[in-house]
UniProtKB/TrEMBL annotation:
Keywords: Metal-binding
Name of the protein described by the UniProt record: DDE Tnp4 domain-containing protein
InterPro entries registered for this protein in UniProt: HARBI1_dom
Residues covered by the DDE Tnp4 domain: 3-64
GO MF entry, a single one: metal ion binding
Cofactor: a divalent metal cation
Name of a matching Pfam family: DDE_Tnp_4
Source domain of life: Eukaryota
Length: 128
């Protein structure tokens, strides 16, 4: 998902961009930790896309299990750099125009949610 482009954005778009940036940072940090421990993330994953969710879920479960039960050894080295982490996703195929329209709709839906009473965070306006 892409942030809204530009500098003179409305408050709701700036809030969306901020929240997206925070979410992206969490995902990148998580994949950095997984990459440092599981070699499958250091190269292109040779599996069917339908299996990606199971691969990711399995490594997350293993990560949490090791972190919980193996406290005596230092199994988690420094987090790999973002560039190494994202290298496995090079050359992803482009998507068509309809996918872009759907992405804009999803982005706008999240934008509306982030400023709604149900989705707004008390501190988000102080961060933009």
């Amino acid at each position: 998902m892409r942030p809204y482009p530009g500098t003179n954005l409305s408050t709701d778009k700036r809030i969306f961009n901020y929240r997206l940036s925070r979410a992206r940072r969490v995902v990148e940090n998580t994949f950095g930790q997984l990459t440092s421990k599981f070699r499958i993330y250091n190269r292109r994953i040779h599996a069917l896309p339908k299996n990606f969710d199971n691969i990711i879920l399995s490594t997350c479960i293993l990560h949490n299990f090791i972190k919980k039960y193996d406290k005596e050894t230092n199994l988690f080295a420094e987090v790999a750099s973002t560039n190494e982490t994202l290298a496995a996703y090079d050359d992803l195929p482009a998507v068509g125009l309809n996918a872009s329209r759907e992405a804009f709709y999803v982005r706008d839906t999240f934008k509306s949610y982030f400023i709604s009473p149900a989705g707004a965070l008390p501190w988000q306006n102080n961060r933009i």
